[in-house]
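Hi everyone,

Forwarding the result from last night's run.
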Amino acid sequence: MSITAWIAVLVIIATIYCLIKRYETRLVLFTAGLFLCCISMKPMAALDQFAKSMTNANLIMAICGAMGFAYVVTHTSCDRHLVSLLAAPLKKLGILLIPAATAVTFFVNIAIPSAAGCAAAVGATFIPVMIRAGIRPAAAGAAILMGTYGSILSPGMSHNNFVAGISKMNVMDLISLHTPFSLIMMGIGLVGITIVCLVLRDNKPTAEELAAYSAKEGGAPIEKINFLKALAPLVPLIILVLGNKYVPVLKMGVAQAMVLGAIFTLLVSWCDPQKFSKEFFRGMGNGYGDVMGIIIAAGVFAAGLRSAGLIDAFVTALKASNELARWGGSLGPFVLAVITGSGDAATFAFNEAVTPHALDFGMQVPNLGSLALISGSLGRTMSPIAGVVILISGLAMVPPIQLVKRTAIPMIVGVITLALIMV
């Protein structure tokens, strides 16, 4: 390797350190990429990539539309109506509440692809229900956390749209490709969390544990469920599934489906349309700044790695071993997500830099991209510093490590299984 490639290795280590220390993700990735382009005497490569990533039309439409819809669903409490509807028949399941809560969270996370937004909606309702049913607070929180990678099946998830873009596929076709593997991961999660909680005797809480928990009034379940409001978060998903598979007249893009979902939400909620409009466009703006911002910065970082020659060296090594590609595409994003608390930075960087070269080492672009995006989500689910873990630990009133202690083993088993069966 060249001297710049070895410097790139050191920069990657420094980047991981900065992400672990919780420095601003976009700043870290952009700075690292720009530095590598400069030492490679190609500073314009970073700036050109920045401009190119800013104007990725398909990604912008899907991400901003999905985030706008997610904001109005929360604004109108439609997410809480959906969760309350799903929670109603599950209250008397005992220990089976744990896998049931995980399954419900997984399902809701498809409709509400924000892990934090889904966790807040589901956790505020389910955690008190589970604790009152005799489940330890830590197990109740872990059950919700285990379901927060359901967004891997959502057409509104940024990673699905990104991988579909570089694979030149429709996003629903990409989701169909990895759905069997995603459902296997869900099955491992359901069985794994149940076994771990049984081993830890989480269905036999002590009086002290129950006394230490106090549910917040704001998270009380909806008493009178509005079925149309409960349906609202699912409308875009229903349109996209029907349009792409069964009803051609409904075939449309993610952004269009999100707008129709927002209109339906406004009609059934009958709220102030001015506030509703402001919330929708606020969500769109935050979607560009928060999600697209990471994609843009990851693109600059990948441009730096390419300019330094590290990507070419890495691809050459992968050509010599399909096994190296298999484990690199799964364990790489997984481990980085665990130690940084974010599956986004690692997954976007990997899929930007390495996945487009998949054919060079005997793999398919959509398969490798899907492997990385699922692995990153699994890793984030067992990271004690992930934002969603901290949020749920607050709802359950337990330390984050108590949640991770229950999700770690199923997630490790899951990512190893994924690497063995997916490519």
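Residues 273-308 form the longest helix (36 residues).

Cheers,
N.
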